[in-house]
Amino acid sequence: xxxxxxxxxxxxNQLWLRLSQELQEEAWQQSQAHGNAASRCxxxxxxxxxxxxxxxxxxxxxxxxxxxxxxxxxxxxxxxxFVNGTPIELEGIRLVLIPSETSDLEEFAVPCEWVDIxxxxxxxxxxxxxxLGESEQSWLRVWxxxxxxxxxxxxxxxxxxxxxxxxxEVLAEDLTQMLLVLQPDSSPQAAAPQxxxxxxxxxxLLIQLSNPSIYSPRLTVPFEQWAALLVDEQWRQELYKxxxxxxxxxxxxxxxxxxxxxxxxxxxxxxxxxQAVETLLTPLEFSAVRGIENPQETVSSEAIAPVxxxxxxxxxxxxxxxxxxVLGQIGLGHPEAIExxxxxxxxxxxxxxxWEAALSLGKIAPNHPQAGVSKARLIDLGMQLAGCQVAxxxxxxxKIEEKIGxxxxxxxxxxxxxxxxxxxxxxxxxxxxxxxxxTRSDEQGEGKDKILQLGFSPPPGTQFQVRVTLDGICVSxxxxx
Length: 481
Description:
Layout: H1 4-10, E1 15-18, H2 21-31, H3 37-63, H4 77-80, E2 86-90, E3 93-100, E4 107-111, H5 113-116, E5 124-131, E6 139-147, H6 148-154, E7 156-158, E8 163-167, H7 175-181, H8 199-209, H9 223-231, H10 233-250, E9 257-258, H11 259-263, E10 275-276, H12 277-280, H13 283-290, H14 301-309, H15 317-330, H16 335-347, H17 351-364, E11 373-378, E12 390-398, E13 404-412, E14 424-429, E15 432-438, E16 452-456, E17 463-470, E18 473-480
Parallel strand pairs: 3-5, 9-18
Antiparallel strand pairs: 1-6, 2-3, 4-8, 5-6, 7-8, 10-11, 11-12, 12-13, 13-16, 14-15, 14-17, 17-18
């Protein structure tokens, strides 16, 4: 991946600013006071944007000898709970920064609240890309901006997500040119009256939208009602606080998932969310791989013996791996299958074969000290993903010196689907991104990967966070090894 200095050379007209690891950690802590994963990720990106951009613009204005009052950098928690964007005012010039983690910059997406609510309308809409990684790979990039007039005349409004989309080619790039001129758009700010609500309707909406199961309140009720509720500071604060309160009281405090409890077969409240992989993914996904039509059927010792022979060291490694997987389906109740898998764990040179042996051992002898465990849960990224449901899978197995091996996977639950492009899987510890992988796209811009995977062996007691991100929405889980 190109470093910040090289990127700023390739795109000299765009603004590039480094994101410190300290700020990322601070932003993540601040973002936890929100009702769901989407709003937490939204707050996280906007906090990074605000705390990085404001110091830069103040320094730029001072260097340009423009006598400006200090810009407010007050956080907007009640705003970020519902709408993506950070408003900034410069002596009557009104900007809104719209951050996103996406690497697809063909279009700039602006929530309609910033455009169609008269008092929220801005002179300039600024497109910000956030890239999260290690050291020089963490940066903020201002890749373009549009005026209100241009957004309304050249943008395309999508009613389904109440968003304006404008092509990258229409955007201006050099932010400093805008700051040198600082001319507000000529369009009148208050051409339309402010949206209004009766007190009774406002109370009814507050009760309805406080429900944490409503993932995106902005898309739930007619826009005129939503806009009127949103612009009223008191009502917006009340809705934000109530959603946060109900989210906390209705969700069990799972804290950090202790992976060793999974190895020890300890039943906790976590089991209500994390399921056996086989029960979540389409059964075809497993039976097709194993060649078993009904894995619950009792298999004789005579049927087991040929499979065990395929585990011998003189067999091809791929064949040994596949045979280990088959034993996990048919070896229940057969001590010779347990012994064969245990022997394979000691002799196999291939890491994939050892993983397969450990997982199969976990299925037929879950209390065995070398048994592996796999768990899965659905990921709610706040969107339908074109009908593709996605699961986060955590696979663990014991290793030497009290360590455990960890594999993280993101997969569609149906074999017929592929993962969307630009979906990112990250492992974060001590505020730093240690591992990261991202799905690819084909020539048509469609996803081409069926699985996203990371693997590592953390020392005992290591705490880490797994984060799955797509188009600015992310889901995170905390673990301890």
